[in-house]
Design goal:
It comes from Gilvirhabdus luticola. The protein is mostly beta strands. The chain is built from 3 helices and 28 strands. Helices cover 4% and strands 39% of the residues.
């Protein structure tokens, strides 16, 4: 996140002697991205973070592709994804390309036996159902319905759920995920026209520090494999850190919609950006107020973007027969638009309660075998009168 955060104990100067009460030095770690050019955090550990005891297993979790070149519009019934006890097992990749993966997950249990680290990708976890606590090496974040959790690549975490009824929509991104540049000034401060501001970004305020030795299993994701690594010290042994690279939470309910006299284009809903895709939040809002306005969107061809919409709650006015947990995929190369009757139906309406998350990718998405299990094969004909 492009603003500074400090938590726990740190020395006055970086790269200087910082000792425990018994005189032993803390282990300093610079945790950075994009070489030494991206955002980084300087952290201080009870133990050296390098103590690998064993590399015990390695296995592929790469998604199996059903359609690599797809031009068919799809609807996927997300809540048909079967709940699984284990968090990592529960993560089913639905759509993927070289830049990102879109994952549905219905985990029943907290991660208690292992820690997890994704070295390949930033993870954006949208909480559709469930609540709990994300525990990370850089502190904890409480979460609930409507939260986005952004976990930059490489941050070790566990996730604790309050109940077994959880539904997550996850985007794994091989490019760093930022908030939109156009809403920030030269210093990184969010500007007055931004639909959210720094007060809406929840940073870790609770740091758990364990100075323990033993066998600690970290499941590390790298290049489509999970590699099980056993470390000799507890991964959450940070006594303090400062910098710009840390996990944070943002609630979709804190996104302030931008509205106008006539239909506003999707970029007004933009919440996150990368150089390979954008993420938008469609939230309850007042409709357009020109006397002749048509609130439903017009037909459109994003000729070179795949558009993925994840329906969270409310009545999605431009679509017929769409329910919570559904995903629509409108691929690049063909136009899409309101369903029959939706345009007339929208006229005169003054507000919407819709809640949805959209991911627009600049390269085509491949459809996985997991996606085909929950696919509506006739959706592409749903615009016929
Ligand atoms: Fe669209």
């Amino acid at each position: 996140m492009p603003f500074y955060h400090k938590l726990g104990k740190i020395p006055h100067k970086r790269h200087t002697q910082f000792r425990k009460p018994d005189g032993i030095l803390y282990s300093e770690q610079l945790f950075g991205t994009i070489g030494f050019d991206g955002m980084s955090t300087n952290s201080y550990h009870e133990q050296r973070p390098t103590q690998v005891k064993a590399i015990s297993k390695q296995y592929s979790v790469a998604p199996k592709i059903a359609k690599s070149n797809n031009i068919k519009s799809y609807r996927f019934k997300g809540f048909q994804v079967k709940p699984e006890n284990d968090y990592l097992v529960s993560r089913k990749t639905i759509l993927t390309n070289n830049d990102c993966s879109i994952i549905l997950s219905a985990p029943k249990q907290s991660t208690s036996e292992y820690f997890y680290k994704n070295t390949d990708a930033d993870e954006l976890i949208f909480v559709h159902k469930g609540s709990g606590k994300l525990r990370t090496m850089f502190g904890n974040l409480d979460f609930k319905y409507g939260d986005y959790l952004l976990i930059p690549r490489g941050i070790i975490y566990k996730i604790d759920f309050d109940s077994e009824d959880n539904r997550l929509f996850i985007v794994e991104s091989h490019r760093p995920i930022y908030t939109p540049k156009r809403y920030r000034n030269w210093f990184g401060q969010l500007l007055e026209h931004s639909p959210f501001c720094e007060r809406d970004i929840r940073r870790p305020e609770e740091l758990e520090t364990y100075n323990e030795k033993g066998d600690f299993l970290i499941k590390v994701k790298k290049q489509g494999d999970i590699i099980e690594m056993v470390y000799a010290s507890h991964p959450f042994d940070v006594v303090g850190y400062d910098g710009y690279n840390y996990p944070y939470a943002f609630s979709i309910h804190d996104f302030e919609p931008i509205t106008g006299r006539i239909h506003q284009p999707p970029p007004v809903h933009q919440t996150f950006e990368t150089d390979a895709f954008v993420v938008c939040s469609f939230v309850p809002r007042l409709y357009d107020y020109h006397p002749q306005s048509i609130p439903a969107p017009y037909n459109h061809s994003n000729i070179d973007s795949d558009e993925v919409l994840y329906y969270v709650d409310g009545d999605f006015m431009s679509r017929n027969d769409v329910e919570e947990g559904h995903i629509s995929l409108h691929p690049a190369g063909i136009p899409h638009g309101p369903h029959p009757g939706a345009t007339e139906r929208s006229i005169g309406k003054t507000k919407t309660d819709e809640l949805a998350v959209m991911v627009d990718t600049f390269k085509p998405l491949m459809v996985t075998e997991e996606a085909m299990k929950i696919a509506d094969e006739d959706y592409h004909k749903s615009w016929l009168e």
